[in-house]
Design a protein that fits this description.
By secondary structure, this protein is α/β, with parallel strands linked by helices. The N terminus is likely disordered. Strands 9-10-11-13-15-17-19-21 form an eight-stranded mixed sheet, with no helix packed on it. Strands 3, 4, 6, 7 and 8 form a five-stranded antiparallel sheet that branches. Strands 25, 26, 28, 29 and 30 form a five-stranded antiparallel sheet that branches. It is built from eleven helices and 41 strands.
């Protein structure tokens, strides 16, 4: 078996029947081989098996009839045999360095970690790795090749620096779409004695499916989003495949092993007007869904219809600035607690309703719910979250204990209606010292005092949040706990009290509440998630603690009407009791000297009752000058009672009493019970034109103006 592997002259030297004393050995040829530098590259010498050589020499010694008879003469021969054997063993060890491919070749998709704060996701790479060969030192390296079909033909993708390398990477987008098949081989570079170089066989083939292009089941879904929902115009999804070969992937779309894992986009002028796509629910490998400023038509809102709840791989949901996206958190992601989400943001969206406890049970989650329309109290089992922003909503009630004792510097609760009185002090007051002074809450220390018939004065301590507009509103009811009616508003939130009128008689129960209109804040911070002064909601606080007072119920109203017939002026006085108690001690003084000037008038007919309630007596001595009281003592007006008194005066001398020649203005004041209940007359026939039971209001006390014309005036 050795003869074909040896050069002819070596084979003849070893195996012909010549005398041992003249037999050449392989050792005799080695100097020439070394001089020719053929040792490493000579396959013949490397193929010589030491065991075969040893058997040959033993056979030769035993069979040669002269060997034992002349042992001393054989010693040089024996020495040469041993040296040949040792050298051939060394050459056989060198045979281990023959060109072989690396082993344990594998290929995986490599996902670099996105740097903190970066909004651009890291590009996916294909990583091929292997176990290097054991032989080093003669300039060898590895070549990585791939083919779109199993078994090749292969295209060279790259080479390593040397034979110690164990991996190679390429961007996912730099490979053709579909399946790719990889092999690795070892290369010995060319030199002066080997001008063509040598390469090992290929390693075992490994494959990675769907490296580039997207296929089913996600491809038809993405094409539906592009064509039927208008996402092409919004995000510039131009070609037919979201993840084609090269660098032509749809903006914001990333694929992994033939599945869509990321959808990100910000709409420009082209907004989304179609429904929230139900097809999203079938993108089961989706890990990031980040669509901003797209559903913005508040007149035609889009409902969050439980599309994302089944996407268990989702770890990032961001739907900021979608003011036209409505519904609740339960509608958007009802299974939030069992999902993988660690970053959830719906800043400035149209979402509303309560915050379910499941959204506050993941302490490591970044939860940004600010500038939305969420209402109600936070669930009591809320955790101390790492990042939690609910500023600019309509939330109220006492804070959960975990939030009161939070250790996070990233909790924001401002511009809501949280109960600052009953929430105990805690770490939250250190981490966010402004949270208490930015709540729309009712004023404290509310007090009330009656100020006269059907009126009262209320006072309180203003709240800490006095900017961004708003007011306090006083409400009252004759039933404890309401329902309440409004009796007045302050001009702003710095006011410390308000006088109210028109109250019904008897015990009244009062509350005060605070109102802050929707507003836009001005920000100076660098972190937009902490710029939380905006509030898209009109906020009305809960009611203050209830206080009560007994209000005097006697209310009198009076109106005066004048009609002219030449120089005759007819005056009608209309009185009404609007209260719940009878009015006694009625008084109605009229000073005609002040109206016309003394001596410039005469009576055509003195005061007379046109509508007589039966409880009024007129003063027979009334002259409008020295005796100005129209009623006699003891006159009264029952509850709901009315009266009309008429008198006619002739103007004998038309003069200018300060309003122009012949122009006169007149008002009277009706009172009862010694003047504690009074009303300044209104021009006309109705003491209470707006019919609210309070004739003393502004606009219901206009003077009666009339003109008497004379030829000479």
């Amino acid at each position: 078996m050795l003869l074909p592997l040896l050069p002819a002259h070596l084979s003849q030297a070893f195996f012909t029947e010549r005398s041992y004393t003249r037999r050449p050995f392989i050792l005799d040829y080695l100097p020439a081989l070394f001089r020719k530098k053929r040792l490493v590259h000579c396959r013949y010498i490397l193929a010589i098996k030491p065991a075969s050589v040893l058997l040959y020499h033993v056979n030769f010694i035993v069979m040669n009839k002269h060997f034992f008879s002349n042992f001393n003469q054989q010693w040089p021969f024996i020495t040469k045999c041993l040296l040949s054997l040792l050298l051939l063993c060394a050459l056989h060890a060198t045979a281990l360095a023959q060109l072989v491919p690396p082993t344990n070749v594998s290929v995986v998709l490599f996902k670099p970690v996105t740097p903190p704060g970066s909004t651009t996701p890291a590009l996916l790479s294909i990583r091929v790795s292997w176990t290097p060969i054991s032989y080093t030192g003669d300039g060898r390296y590895y070549e990585i090749l791939s083919a779109p079909t199993p078994g090749g033909p292969y295209t060279s993708r790259s080479v390593t620096v040397d034979e110690t390398a164990s991996l190679w990477e390429i961007l996912n987008t730099d490979l053709p779409g579909g399946e790719n098949y990889f092999v690795v081989r070892t290369v010995l570079p060319a030199d002066a004695n080997n001008p063509n170089g040598l390469a090992s066989a290929y390693s075992e083939e490994v494959t990675f499916p769907q490296v580039g292009g997207l296929g089913p089941p996600d491809l038809p879904i993405m094409q539906t989003l592009r064509e039927d929902y208008g996402w092409n115009s919004a995000f510039f999804w131009r070609n037919s495949n979201p993840c084609p070969p090269g660098n032509l992937a749809w903006p914001g779309v990333t694929c992994d092993q033939g599945r869509v894992i990321t959808i990100q986009g910000v709409c420009g002028t082209a907004k989304l007007t179609t429904a929230f796509p139900a097809e999203l629910a079938n993108l089961s490998s989706l890990t990031t869904f980040d669509i901003k400023d797209c559903w913005t038509d508040t007149n035609n809102p889009v409902m969050a219809n439980n599309v994302l709840g089944g996407l268990t791989q989702l770890n990032r949901i961001r739907l900021d600035d979608n003011t036209g996206l409505t519904g609740t958190l339960g509608d958007l992601a009802p299974n939030f607690l069992t999902m993988s989400v660690i970053n959830f943001s719906v800043i400035n969206s149209g979402l509303s309703g309560p915050i379910p406890s499941g959204f506050l049970q993941k302490p490591t989650v970044v939860t940004s719910l600010n500038q939305c329309h969420f209402s109600g109290a936070l669930p009591a089992d809320a955790k101390s979250l790492f990042f939690f922003n609910v500023s600019g909503n309509q939330l109220e009630g006492i804070l959960p204990n975990d939030l009161v004792n939070t250790n996070s510097n990233n909790v924001r609760l401002r511009y809501n209606k949280f109960d600052v009185v009953n929430t105990p002090a805690g770490n939250i007051d250190i981490k966010d010292p402004q949270w208490r002074n930015t709540q729309t809450v009712p004023p404290t220390n509310v007090q009330v005092a009656p100020t006269g018939a059907n009126s009262a004065s209320l006072s309180w301590t203003p709240i800490g949040y006095t900017w961004d507009g708003g007011y306090y509103e006083v409400l009252a009811s004759q039933t404890p706990g309401g329902p309440y009616a409004s009796y007045g508003k302050t001009s702003d939130k710095t006011a410390a009290g308000l006088n109210v009128t028109g109250l019904p008689g008897g015990t009244n129960y009062f509350v005060v509440r605070t109102f802050t209109p929707a507003h836009t804040g001005d920000f100076t911070g660098s972190n937009p998630q902490l710029n939380d002064r905006d509030n898209p909601n009109d906020l009305t606080s809960v009611n203050s603690e209830e206080v009560s007072a007994s209000i005097m119920s006697t209310v009198i109203g009076v109106a005066k009407n004048a009609t002219l017939n030449g120089t005759e002026a007819t005056f009608d006085f209309y009185l009404e009791n609007f209260g719940t108690e009878s009015l006694g001690g009625l008084s109605l003084p009229e000073d005609l000297d002040a109206v016309f000037g003394a001596g410039n008038y005469t009576f055509v007919s003195p005061p007379a009752l046109v509508n007589d309630p039966g409880t009024i007596t007129l003063n027979g001595g009334f002259d409008g000058s020295s005796d100005k009281e129209i009623f006699a003592s003891g006159s009264s007006l029952p509850v709901g009672g009315t009266a009309q008194i008429r008198m006619v005066v002739n103007v004998t001398a038309v003069t200018d009493v300060g309003f122009g020649c012949g122009v006169y203005s007149n008002q009277v004041t009706a009172s009862a019970e010694g003047g504690t209940v009074s009303d300044l007359s209104d021009s006309g026939t109705d003491p209470d034109p707006n019919g609210n039971g309070d004739p003393t209001e502004s606009g219901e006390n206009d003077p009666t103006v009339f003109t008497v014309v004379r030829p000479h005036c």
